[in-house]
Amino acid sequence: MDSSQSDVEDNAEHLRQEIGSLHSSIKDKSTLDKAASNEMVLKSLLIKATRYLAAHPFSKDIYESGLFGSSLLPLPQPASHSLANVLYLQAQLLRHSPEGPVASGCIAKLEEAVNAGVLANPNATTKRKPQLKREKELREMKIAAGIVNVEEEERLEKEAREVKEERSAHHKRRKVRKLESKIISLASLEADVSDLMSTYTTPQLCGSCTTVPSRVDWSVVPNILQPSAEEEGGGGIKDSERAGRKMSQLESLRVVLDSVILGRSLSIVDFGSGSGNSSLALASLFPSCNFTLVDSKPSCVSILKTRIATSGLSNVTPFLGDVMDYKKPFDVGIAIHLCGEATDLAMKSCIANRASFVLVPCCVGKIHKVIQSQIDANVETPDYPRSSWLKSKLSISDYLSLTRVADFSDGRGEGSHSVVAEKSKVLIDVDRARRGEEEGYTMQVGKLEPKTCSVKNDIIVGKAPITLDAVT
Ligand SMILES: C[S@@+](CC[C@H](N)C(=O)[O-])C[C@H]1O[C@@H](n2cnc3c(N)ncnc32)[C@H](O)[C@@H]1O
């Protein structure tokens, strides 16, 4: 036996003796109760036992003492942070021998401490994080000790989720039914709002084009600018199916943009460009136009800079900021999947600049916050509905329900509520188009082709009114 081994043995022997006396002192319940009521004493007993356990994790003595698992040892209330952490330490040690009454008892104690919220260090600056960490560890311990039946727990969780989903679907269906009757009762909208679409020409898209130059010639677009860019940190879409869908969207967008640009050298702003998966390829396909890519996320702008530098593209400038922060004049605005209200802000900015625009809106449900705040503030001229036409038919509160119903991204395509969802979405986009018309724009509303290129495939095109300046 070398000296370090004998030290451990001596130590263990010493601890064994200590635990022996500890043992006899806790044999009768009254001593234990006293110990428990005196947190200091209890803590020192536990520390000793923990040290002993560290030297002999599988000690029979400890198992037999029942000290850790003993229901005789109540956790003082309120338990202190440091005492709870001693319990935690024990439970950690017991992870290596997770079975048996000691482990389960200790875990039960720890759970008590976790539930009492005492494990988080009261002096720590972030209290919730350590508590969460402990909760997670506790669960792992319980699984290891066989206290938790994971399968049963998952089954129960699934059941609870299903009940919740059913409740929320029921809630949505009720709302939709209410709204449906409202939509149908709008006299001038007739029974079916989808008819409204027929008042707009659909933008000419490229779903059925089969040949270059009608289709995008991807061989002229540098790899790093394509949605499928694979370069590390290059911002491309990793999932090849999604990247393919984005490329299909760009087929349509290029044709639409072509019909707006009409061979001119224009300044184009992409609002909410992200890392450029739409507009970098477009910039490469329209080299005589200057593109500004606006995004509020610094990480996106940094990827944009890398992609621009790597490709040597000279007609693109990134701009870090919010849609409304961009103040320079421009000729055409685009906004592809710019969430909720931001699409309307982009359209507003285009109208202020008398610029044409191409919008592929998304997440209409997200507009509800700004609408609700306008309702709460009782603003005199709310931003929604967008057009005077719909303002004369729907109150802002009705419009709020409309956005909620229209945001059925999960349920569209099935059941009667999906029909109403679709109608509501049409109404929201037609309202945007009407607003454009009220500003003198020539409007088109349609869907990207093929429709499967995105669930968010609605497209709104606004061609700017020709100003006298432009004519002279
Ligand atoms: C879904 S991504 C679309 C990216 C890109 N248009 C495309 O088609 O791949 C939306 C982007 O809009 C940006 N965004 C959202 N709200 C914005 C706002 N108010 N101002 C500027 N950027 C915004 C987000 O940071 C995000 O990068």
From TrEMBL:
<feature type="domain" description="Methyltransferase">
    <location>
        <begin position="246"/>
        <end position="368"/>
    </location>
</feature>
<dbReference type="InterPro" id="IPR025714">
    <property type="entry name" value="Methyltranfer_dom"/>
</dbReference>
<dbReference type="InterPro" id="IPR029063">
    <property type="entry name" value="SAM-dependent_MTases_sf"/>
</dbReference>
<feature type="region of interest" description="Disordered">
    <location>
        <begin position="1"/>
        <end position="22"/>
    </location>
</feature>
<dbReference type="GO" id="GO:0005737">
    <property type="term" value="C:cytoplasm"/>
</dbReference>
<protein>
    <recommendedName>
        <fullName>Methyltransferase domain-containing protein</fullName>
    </recommendedName>
</protein>
<dbReference type="Pfam" id="PF13679">
    <property type="entry name" value="Methyltransf_32"/>
</dbReference>
